[in-house]
């Protein structure tokens, strides 16, 4: 494991400021370290081979991670920030620590389970953690591997952080929502932590995303195309509709009314609603419909940095059910569905498209 800081037995010294003829030691195990400098990798300390130190046995760091940590040190407050401080109570070592806030610059893959464990460790010490993602995560923005790092901040909504090594700035993508199955967000960068904190308290204009008929038709066309090209996942969902004598491309218009949703619902929000409506039949248990749709779409509920993430899914479910009740399509008695009136499905993509062409934006 590469380290940015080491001890000269009097104080901690950064690798970039270390002298070649000086001896340096690990602050944890007290073993002597090797100072490494080169034209490619950032300056760093390393343990000798076969060291049994807990740090030495951790996964190696990329050059981006080393450089980013040093840049983040200046971003936060160099005088009052601890680098790679080992927290023995939880056996964790945050990249940086400022007051009661741990900074983690995450460049390598990490499972949801491990991420949740790390965050829980900081909570045990009454600490919060800010997870900042590297370039590989940034390239995959919108994927499940990135989504687990979402925060929900009252003033700016769903937010995710990236570190831009070339700019020496943090990038904040905020007000992240899905509209018509596509991610929308606002973006801003900061060179200093205090600038970021001021913005969170006073963010200015927060865009209110709106649904449009274009979004509805685009999603409908995307479903039709994936069915035409025999997309395996789409065919699996289509079979659910077929089993109830319906065509997915002819889904009820009630599924299209709400197009804007949270990243927790994600790009398959419309599919999820179609599966719910397709599963509604006389005396079916509402909780079974909810569970089935969640499983079929593969909705994640483990968002370690979002309080009660499951509630966002429950709220969307309640809203759709209330729309069906309001339109007098169903009643709910003792947790079971009772059909009042038929929910209209279309025969195919073209029949629904023809109906939508007469609606303009009146469905919203």
TrEMBL record:
Q: What InterPro entries does the record point to? A: CoiA-like_N (IPR057253), CoiA_nuc (IPR010330)
Q: Give the source species.
A: Apilactobacillus kunkeei DSM 12361 = ATCC 700308
**Limits of the Competence protein CoiA-like N-terminal domain:** 15-55
Instruction: Write down a Pfam family by its short name.
Output: CoiA_N
Q: Which domain of life is it from?
A: Bacteria
What name is this protein filed under? Competence CoiA family protein
* Residue span, Competence protein CoiA nuclease-like domain: 61-179
